[in-house]
Specification:
Shape: elongated
Strand content: 35-45%
Keywords: Membrane, Transmembrane, Transmembrane helix
Order of helices and strands: EHHEEEEEEEEH
Protein name: PH domain-containing protein
Structural class: alpha+beta
Number of helices: 3
Distance between the termini: 17 Å
Oligomer: single chain
Number of domains: 2
Radius of gyration: 20 Å
Largest sheet: 5 strands, mixed
Number of strands: 9
Strand order of the largest sheet: 5-8-9-7-6
Length: about 150
């Protein structure tokens, strides 16, 4: 492993935990009155699922690949770095409306983001599209990718 970064979307996690607690209190209150809290129990399950899937984003640069994992690891992507053009990195702004997750824009660029902000744009040889990864440390991620490519050539 050359580089690893964990990002936690604090606002989303806090919001989901508050919603989970409110749903739990509502379900307890409804069941104490002798009514069926099925709707709130379903909401608890969905909120728990969202927390499990998106509570963090892990970026790991290994020997010849980048591994991006969301939450517990159900959503994951391993990207081969053999075709990376080490001279074509750029910084891209990721707007807030892109949200959290793995998505592509109308130009064909692929985004992995956990929050709005800056992302490292990685260009592959023979492609006009970018792979953009939201990171706290742009330079360290870029250096680790270049390092893995140089180690492969040796």
């Amino acid at each position: 492993m050359v580089y690893e970064e964990k990002q936690y979307p604090k606002f989303l996690n806090l919001l989901l935990i508050i919603l989970w607690l409110l749903s739990l209190l509502g379900a307890i209150s409804i069941s104490a009155r002798g009514e069926n809290p099925l709707g709130l129990l379903i909401a608890l399950g969905l909120i728990s699922l969202m927390l499990a899937l998106f509570y963090r984003m892990l970026i790991r640069v290994e020997q010849n690949a980048i591994l991006i994992v969301f939450g517990l690891g159900i959503i994951r992507k391993k990207i081969d770095l053999t075709g990376v053009d080490v001279n074509e990195f750029c910084v891209r702004k990721i707007p807030w409306w892109y949200g959290i997750g793995w998505k592509s824009d109308y130009q064909g660029n692929i985004f992995f983001c956990n929050k709005p902000g800056l992302g490292l744009g990685i260009k592959f040889k023979g492609s006009k599209h970018l792979l953009i990864i939201n990171t706290k440390n742009l330079k360290a991620l870029q250096d680790s990718i270049v390092k893995t490519r140089l180690l492969e050539k040796d």
